[in-house]
Amino acid sequence: MASNKKDNLKRVLLPAASILIFIIIWQIVAEFYVNNPFLLPSFTDVISAFLSMAFGPKGSLPKDLWYSLLHFAIGMVAAIIVGIPVGVAMGWFKDVDIALNPLIELIRPIPPLAWIPFAIIWFGLTNAAAGFIIFIGAVFPILINTYTGFREVPKVFIEAGKVLGCTNNFSLIRRVAFPSAIPSIMSGIRISMGVGWMCLVGAEIFGAGSGKYGLGKNLWTYYNLHQMPSVVVYMLILGFIGIFIDLIFRHYVNKQMLKWREEDL
Amino acid sequence: MSLLSIENLRKVFSEGETDEVVALEGINLEIEDEEFICLVGPSGCGKTTLLRIVAGLDTPSSGVALLAGNEILGPDPERGMVFQEYSLFPWLSVIDNIEFGLEMKGVSKKARSETSEKYLELVGLKQFAGSFPHELSGGMRQRVAIARALANDPKVLLMDEPFGALDAQTRNMMQKELLEIWRRAKKTVIFVTHSVDEAVFLADRIIIMSPRPGKIKEIVAVDIPRCRERTAPEFANLRKYVLSLMGEGTI
User: Fold this and answer.
1) How far is CA A182 from CA A15, A174, B170, in A?
2) How many whole angstroms separate alpha carbon B228 and alpha carbon B234?
3) In this structure, are residues B147 and B98 in contact, taking their beta carbons and an 8 Å threshold?
4) Could you tell me which chain A residue has the CA closest to the CA of B153?
5) What is the pTM for the complete model shown?
6) What is the per-residue pLDDT across A36-82, written as a single tens digit (0 to 9) for each?
7) CA-to-CA distance for B229 and A249, rounded, in angstroms?
8) Which of B76, B89, B134 to mutate to test the interface with A (most CBs of A within 10 A)?
9) Which of A41, A188, B49, B131 could form a disulfide with A142 if both were Cys (CB 3.0 to 4.6 A apart)?
10) How far is residue B194's CA from residue A209's CA, in Å, rounded to a whole number?
11) A216: nearest Cα among A55, A51, A71, A114
């Protein structure tokens, strides 16, 4: 037990120490060697930029956060609404698989950001335009993981379902195949959230969005204003929110949906 | 009339192709109500195929299987099945697994829990009602699978080498428990195994099958009173006899 406690302490102290050392080195290099906040803002520059943006009168950070999360939510919800049913249909019905597979393989390799011109033409400078880019990035991992999850449902579960009176396609999908595929679907959603978060920044920088607000949008604005400490603030916030979304998602899924599994997502 | 009758059953896989395999040929069999039947034979003798046809999971190429006079055309809860692999739904708790078939039938929540508790008690796992399958040992999982099949109140319980994955000790214990469950639940059981020892221990009648094509070679009635002692001379003699019929000589 004593060594266990020591191990746990190590797990907290070692990462904390390495982060602290990283910050110190960053501060020293920025302050004494580079000495140019345009090339490399120091840690303290970044902190004071953060404070003035978050709490100062001119800070747009809360609004940027709100709009980015809105773009992200539009894209993710659309990707889930489209990706799961199409993946289910392809995974369960052979004919649907044969019909749609080539089409999907043609569209899938197009990088999501290449859709930006059409996103703007189709949706205008709206939240939906940014949402569309995120949708394009997020829909394929969800679709493919749903498909794979359905293809890998053990045959014995299907047969057990059948002998227990679950005989039509609808109830077999709902009662047997879908629950069996949930771990794969959830890891698809998790991957797609990572991809979607990256697409968000690209989409906003290229102007797909409703205009003034967005983390990616104003990261670019601050770059144009040469306010590099603010750019770093936005970079860090994008990273933190990305981790935070992933943590919340994993916590929810492991506690609520996958408590029947031995290993966590 | 017997409960289950199989008439002139034939099953061919990939019919008409170069890799055509005759899995079953000229199978005729009558099984009575509440009988305990074991199907034994070497691998490839079609014993599992025969069981799957009775379950409705495979269809015969010709001939019919009749349960209480009705032709078997597909899977139905009146024929319960316990698989060799672990077939419990891992996302459902033990109790929800047992209630699955009843839920499919549209039985009310209250009636479902009464039935599931009864069968959970029958297989001796009452304290594991809320556990998930991965928390149970192999033997316990198969006991839940038996309870799940019985909860539907099937006319016949089909078992495809259900203890094949268990270690020898657990297996012997499960055989004893199965006989006790069978005695209390009063069901017809058709049990596929490749273990002659298991068949002699369990069965009223042993159906011995031979391979390529799968045929019934001999039907042996077991007259030894239960509970059978593996070390008794009559047990050993019968085992030797069945083994000799299977062409394995006196091992």
Assistant:
1) 33, 11, 33
2) 10
3) yes
4) A164
5) 0.89
6) 989 999 999 999 999 988 887 777 888 899 999 999 999 999 999 99
7) 57
8) B89
9) A188
10) 68
11) A71
